Amino acid sequence: MSTLLATLAALLAAAGLTDLMPRRRRTPLNAVARLGAGLGLDPPRRLERRIAAAGLDRPTTEIVALQAGLAILAATAALTLFTFAPGRLGLLLLAGAPAAGYVAPELALRRRARTRANTMQEELPDVLDLLRVAIAAGLAPRRALAEVGRRHPGLLAAELERAADRTRMGEPAEATLRQLEARCPAPGIPALAEALRRAERHGAPLGRSLAAQAAEARSRRAARRAEHAAKAAPKIQLVVALLLVPAVLLLMAAALIPTLTTR
Hints:
The structure is a single chain. By secondary structure, this protein is an all-alpha fold. It folds into 2 domains: 2-116, no CATH class; 120-219. It is 80% helix and 0% strand. The protein contains 10 helices and no strands. The longest helix has 55 residues, at 207-261.
C-alpha cells in the first residue's frame, strides 16, 4: 500500500512539474486543466507574480485550472484507494490527496522561481559589468540591454534582451521595467530597474550606479559562496566519519586478522 501511495504521489508531482514547463503542445495535462476549468475557481492574488517569477508566460486561470484538475484526479484516486487503507489512513487520504494535488503546481512554481533567482544572482555581477561597458561605449540604455542580452549566454541577460524587445515593440518603459522586476526575483534587480527608470525619465548617467551595483552584487555572491562552503564542511565531515573512517578500520582489521589467528 505504501508503494502504491508513493507511486501516486510521484505521478501527481511529475504531472504538475511537466505542465509548468514552457511548452504549448497538447499533453494529457491539458485535459486535466480543462477538467479543472469547469470549477471556475478564482486565482489567488499573488499567483500572477509567482508565475512571472518562474519565467512562464501563462495566464493565472490556466494554472488555477491545472490545480483544480489535479485536485479532482487526486480525490478520485483517493476514493479508489479508500477501501484498502487501514484504519484512519483512509480518512487522511481523502482529506490530503485533493490538497496535495491542488498545491503541487504552486510548489513547482516556487521551486522554479528559487532556482531562477539563484542563477540570476550568480550572473548579476558579470551582466552589470557588461552593461556598464556598453553604456560607457556610448550605447543608449535600451540598445545596451539588447546587446548584453545578445552577447551573454545567461538567464538574466535573456530577460534583459526580452525587456529591450518589448520596449522596441512600443511597450511603455515603466511597464517593461515592472515586468523585468517580476520575472527576475533576484536581489539587486530592483536597484537595476530603478537606475534604468531614472535614466529613462531624467537621462541620469548609469556608469557610476552600475559600477556600484556590480561591486555590491559581487560582494553578495562572495558571501553566498562562503556561506555555502561553510555549510558544506559539516556534511563533508559527516561523510568522512560515517564512510571513510569505518572503511579504513575495516581494512586495518582485515590486515590484522591473519596475524592474530596464527598465534
